[in-house]
Amino acid sequence: METTTVIPEAGGEDFELLDRYWSAANYLTVAQIYLQENPLLREPLLPSHIKPRLLGHWGTSPGLSLVYAHLNRLIRRTSAEVLFVAGPGHGGPAVVANVYLEGTYSEIYPKVEMDVPGLLRLVRQFSTPGGVSSHVGPATPGSIHEGGELGYSLMHATGAAMDNPGLIVACVIGDGEAETGPLEGSWKAPSFLNPARDGAVLPILHLNGHKISGPTVLGRRSDEDVELLLRAHGWDPVTVSGDDPQLVHHALAAAMDAAYASIRELQSQALTHGVHGPVRWPAIILRTPKGWTGPAMVDGLPVEGTFRSHQVPLAGVRENPGHMAQLEAWMRSYRPETLFDSAGRLVPELAALAPEGSLRMSAVRAGRGGAGTALEIPDLGRYALPPAPRGSVIHETTRPLGELLRDIYIATANDPRFRLFCPDETNSNRLGAVFQATDRCLLEPARDGDHALPEDHVSAEGRVMEVLSEHLCQGWLEGYLLTGRHGLFASYEAFAMVSASMTIQHAKWLQHARELEWRAPVPSLNILLTSTCWRNDHNGFSHQGPGLIDTVLSLSGTVTRVYLPPDANTLLVTAEHILRSRDYVNLVVVDKQPHPQYLTLEEAREHAAAGASIWSWAGNEEPGAAGAGPDVVMACAGDIPTQETLAAAWLLQKHLPELTVRVVNVMDAMVLPPRDIHPHGMSPEKFVELFTADGEVIMAWHGYARALHQLLHGRPQPERFHVRGYNEQGTTTTPFDMVVLNKMSRYHLLLEALRRVHRQVPGADELAGFCRSQLDAHTLYIREHFEDLPEIRDWVWTPM
Predict the structure, then answer these.
(1) Where are the alpha helices (DSSP H) in 447-487?
(2) Three-state secondary structure along 219-239?
(3) Closest by alpha carbon to 235, among 162, 149, 158, 145?
(4) Label partner for 667 (CA 20 to 30 A): which of 111, 422, 571, 639?
């Protein structure tokens, strides 16, 4: 196949000014990495001018600045709204340099002015205590993507473009990042971006050939091979390559002009003639040397164009006079005296190259998160389940949530700002009511023999995002949220661990972003985990794992929340709250299978507001009775733990009515730690009110027991909490056998309670024997009949 490399025509545009602008950005990048004094080299460079620790990354920076400068050119020519996403790790100094050059940085951080003192602050703050990181983090104006953990840039860019017509998201992808699994999956974006209603993503795959200490796969492949790869995913790529700046400037400008014209033509055609399949969005493959314009050789070894330029090409500047001389020559090669005036400002002819106002990529609306329009949540009374008689109504817990999400889609049809993201499991997770309002989004046409029917709910206009990748679903949603819209990511519980690291990174972003007054709060990352470990008995051990709870519990309490609603009405109340919230990671864990329903909607609201409460109807304490408190507290968090706890408490009261039993349900896991650990933590007085001051507590917990012990650390006498939870025992078996295998069944909880009661009670030994005999009978029965005992299957809570 003939290569599509762009060849510049003779007599084209003069890029002398743009090249100087690029030099200014490169100069400021090097200055940030190395200097703590003398920012414009107004005097000879001395060891005292060099930072004692050199921590930056040079190799990817000149490529980022080259792309940034050319995008500025495109914006000035077209007035396009462009969001810049920098995928390469440690590209921070290059992007900060460009944001500073176009003036936004000084507007947001007035102390970093566009003069010599401001330049000094700019260089001194980079990778120093109290300064800025080497990533394009929350503190960088215009950024929605940090680029620290590689792989997520293109999916964030795609999510940002969804329901954002007019926006072009320019996404620079490093060839190291291109080796990651999430980025490989991200190339599927053309199958989901609708040119009639979405913005556009312009991928710019920057192949400089090397990672931190070795070559990259795509860097070694031919132009033809890389183009074929992108073309197979639905893109229309062109390649720009070279090491002659003037030729590359001409070629890159031509490529960007052509890409912009193509984007607008595709969108115009879609608006005029409709969408009849995926379109071939343009993409640019840019090959330039790693560390371009930096030192060619250092200590006899090649640097420019090799992995040696990745971090700090000249590492011994303070101690090595030769390195010092090379650094000064390198920096003076950019001719800073021609770039900045006597006051330290960018000279006027170069400053004029930057876009103005909100057209600057560092000031574009989408890059600040945007206050966004709040979601109008319908009245929950339309979806609430009547639980009466309490505990005897059996219903799929997540199905009413699907009806609520359906009506949110309907309410936002004319102002799209909500999407559900789910890895091919929307119906499986009982959220299928959304298909009454919209379809699954897919632009790929049906093939002969597919027998596609309207009830399959697949169309280019759909706004339910299903793709069999947790990374893509969560990454798309993150990009969608960070640009001001709302959504929900629903996943099977065990497989949410696929994107657990993304959850960590997003929480870190929010934690820092909350400290920046200029960043608008963004809608929360809402993660719904269903098909949980306790009810994946049919799928087996591979589908059983509550680990994301542990992951989220370990993150900063300023941005994390974990909810375990026990029934459908508490789930509805939780959904209403999280969809209105901003700047949080909300983890909601609830099973999709039929479960008993316990609380009215009003009770659910009260319970959710408290986070944990005594279910007096499930115990046998006399209201207002004075005394030493209950003989035992039976506590629970999660739907299956709640069911087993209620059954254990019911059996205990039935067989030993003289024992006083209290049942406590915990819906918000974050009320358990002290308030200095998490802002939701209940007061010491409230904790004692629920769990007593020194009484024994039998706790059934949805996840790993260690996670609950972690939450209780700092509470008085935490050793009195005897926690049963998931302990990595599972297989393909019956529902009740899952709790038996993990020793969290009603019988195990009851036996634990009998062990912890501090007084002798007639009949206790007989009840313990009954529990053991039931466990033995269970094991025999399921092997013979392949289902649970009738007294287990058919049990419902009834008043004593």
Answers:
(1) 470-482
(2) HHCCHHHHHHHHHHCCEEEEE
(3) 158
(4) 422
Are both 505 and 645 inside the same structural domain? no
pLDDT per residue as tens digits for the range 53-74: 999 899 999 999 999 999 999 9
Q: Find the angle CA(415)-CA(140)-CA(365) to the nearest 5 degrees.
A: 25
- Cross-strand bridge partners of residue 563: 588, 668
H or E stretch covering 273: helix 245-273
Are both 396 and 483 inside the same structural domain? yes
- Flag whether 295 is in a domain: no
In a domain, 104, yes or no: yes
CA angle 499, 501, 502 (to 5 degrees): 65
Segments forming the whole domain that contains residue 711? 612-793
Residue 10 confidence (pLDDT): 33
Asked whether 653 and 659 are in contact (CB, 8 A), the reply is: yes
Question: The tokens of 778 are what?
Answer: 């269970």
3-state secondary structure 606-632: HHHHHCEEECHHHCCCCCCCCCCCCCE
280 burial level (CB within 10 Å; 0-12, 13-18, 19+): middle
Q: What residues form DSSP beta bridges with 174?
A: 206
Q: What's the pLDDT tens digit per position in 469-489?
A: 999 999 999 999 999 999 999
> pLDDT confidence of 164, banded at 50, 70, 90?
very high
Output the pLDDT for position 451: 60
Same domain? 358 vs 432: no
Shared domain for 384 and 362, answered yes or no, is: no
218 & 125 share domain: yes
CA distance 252 to 239: 9
Could you tell me the CA-to-CA distances from 57 to 96, 144, 211 in Å, in that order?
13, 20, 12
> pLDDT (tens digit, 9 = 90+) per residue, 394-451?
999 999 999 999 999 999 999 999 999 999 889 999 999 999 999 999 999 877 666 6
- CA–CA distances in Å: residue 324 to residues 93, 174, 340: 21, 30, 23
SS (H, E, C) 399-442: HHHHHHHHHHHHHCCCCCCEEEEECCCCCCCCCHHHHHCCCEEC
Q: Domain total for the chain?
A: 3
